[in-house]
Amino acid sequence: MLTLNFTKFPVLETERLILREHQLSDANNLFAMRTNETVMRYIDRERPKDLLEIKTFITTFNEGFENGDNLAWVIARKEDPANMIGSIGYWRTDFANHRAEIGYMLHPDYWRQGIISEALKKTIDFGFQDMNLHTIKANINVENDASRQILLKHGFVKEALFRQDYYFRGQFLDSEIYGLLNPNH
């Protein structure tokens, strides 16, 4: 069975980015992103009401890591590591089947600069090599073509279309599921 037992939070680096643990000092930036309708357009989750809710969310992220349930990174530029510009991570870990769902978001000021692609490549490699995942999946809103394109670029394959499987804000929404198999298994 899969386990996520790291002695300390795994900080990852790419050419331009540092992927680090969430800190309470990230609350303002995370709140700004999670209440920005441009960022959240295709992320069908309730918006936080206040900073306290975001701070609780960050604490939950960190407890999830400590409990071995999930792994979520802040995306920051190397030249400004304290400034959160996005997030990426693994949730809904299916330990028995060595699967986890990946999700990501990025502040619009940094869109179309290859940042999510760079972070995604690093976290995929980490997921397969260090976490020993067999499958990484992604669940996207069917209207989110940018996310679809980045998943396809990184080798994900569309596995399913679930029609009206998700109820959000008074309507039933469709979901597209993408999967990526560990090439080393």
From TrEMBL:
Residues 17-174 form the N-acetyltransferase domain. One of its GO terms (molecular function) is acyltransferase activity, transferring groups other than amino-acyl groups. PROSITE patterns: GNAT (PS51186). Pfam families: Acetyltransf_3. It comes from the Bacteria. Keywords: Transferase. Gene3D superfamilies: 3.40.630.30. InterPro entries: Acyl_CoA_acyltransferase, GNAT_dom, N-acetyltransferase. CDD domains: NAT_SF. This is Acetyltransferase. It comes from Pedobacter kyungheensis.
